[in-house]
């Protein structure tokens, strides 16, 4: 059950929430208004699970926040925490991506282990299950720096088994674990408008609620570890199929002599309207794909979603067909383009 809370940004949090927020971000005075990133819309709705409605009521010690993984998503998320006054320590495999954040005031540690050891709560935003495991559990991985009283929040998109593996090892140190994959892409990450799909330790969820609210517009608490990962995969499975279907529509419109720009407009006014179509349609028509969500990650999510479906014998033929298109697009060197480049897999020159 969800409770909808009408709010604009942290400046509208309750005084209790603000007090907890400032305890996480010691440089934030109780009045937060100017410290938080501006939200693009003057009014937005925040959806919280019913259990989360008092999530900011706990009195926590001041927290040092770690952030591992500074790619398209991790960088702006960490940046929003820093801009909000949080005490943030960063690490990224490619060190140069830490530099802009260090310029903004972040501290740097040379390994996930050292970040986790020096922070109360550590977030991880990694590419895929393999990198999430490597950073959490590998040599000098975060698990080596975890102990009772600390928390690890994995916001990467991974499968249920991976999340359970990481969560289990983290919890074995006495620390808490929360999975919190996000819906929303590069721009929502920059604007602090992500949607968190969380599951795991409820106490950690409550502890980091104010931090999630800096980076996002809503958060769902879904129970035991795996539920957040699974929900995220279902959402992205739908999105991947939608994009593949939209691609077919754009190309068919053009083939029959109609203007695909008009199709985008027609779609935007009807029941199947989706921001994704209006945002990406115009550039797809021009065959340009500025990367917000890399195609390789969308294909990874289709693969993981199909595995999830297989595990419960759920038939997903549409998603399976869409996945094949993403695989074709990858095989033609489009992995690092935006996932809307899947349309290229339907063009004659790319046909096998
Ligand atoms: N982009 C989007 O719109 C969204 C993405 N997501 C998900 O968020 C996660 C991150 O996505 P995004 O930021 O776009 O991806 P990027 O590819 O931009 O960033 C991936 C991050 O993972 C790191 N990484 C990759 N492999 C390893 C490894 N073996 N060891 C250590 N670090 C590694 C990269 O480090 P390095 O810089 O050194 O390469 C980088 O920090 C993914 O799980 C994705 O599915 C979720 C919602 C939206
Ligand atoms: O995982 C990527 C999600 C992208 C989006 O929600 O727009």
From TrEMBL:
State the superkingdom. Answer: Eukaryota
InterPro entries on file? 3-OH-isobutyrate_DH-rel_CS, 6-PGluconate_DH-like_C_sf, 6PGD_dom2, 6PGDH_NADP-bd, HIBADH-like_NADP-bd, HIBADH-related_NP60_sf, NAD(P)-bd_dom_sf
Q: Where is the 3-hydroxyisobutyrate dehydrogenase-like NAD-binding domain?
A: 226-345
Q: Give the catalysed reaction(s), semicolon-separated.
A: glycolate + NADP(+) = glyoxylate + NADPH + H(+); 4-hydroxybutanoate + NADP(+) = succinate semialdehyde + NADPH + H(+)
Which UniProt keywords are present, listed alphabetically? NAD, NADP, Oxidoreductase, Stress response
Task: Cite a single GO MF annotation.
Answer: NAD binding
Q: Where is the 6-phosphogluconate dehydrogenase NADP-binding domain?
A: 64-223
| UniProt key word Oxidoreductase | yes
Gene3D superfamilies documented for this protein: N-(1-d-carboxylethyl)-l-norvaline Dehydrogenase, domain 2 (1.10.1040.10), NAD(P)-binding Rossmann-like Domain (3.40.50.720)
What Pfam families is this protein classified in? NAD_binding_11, NAD_binding_2
A GO cellular component annotation in the UniProt record? chloroplast
| UniProt keyword Oxidoreductase, yes or no | yes
Q: Which family does it belong to?
A: Belongs to the HIBADH-related family. NP60 subfamily.
Q: Provide the function of this protein.
A: Catalyzes the NADPH-dependent reduction of glyoxylate to glycolate as well as succinic semialdehyde (SSA) to gamma-hydroxybutyrate in vitro. May function in redox homeostasis and play a role in oxidative stress tolerance by detoxifying glyoxylate and SSA generated in glycolate metabolism and GABA metabolism, respectively.
Protein's name according to its UniProt entry? 6-phosphogluconate dehydrogenase NADP-binding domain-containing protein
- Give the species this sequence originates from: Malus baccata (Siberian crab apple)
The record lists the lineage as:
Eukaryota, Viridiplantae, Streptophyta, Embryophyta, Tracheophyta
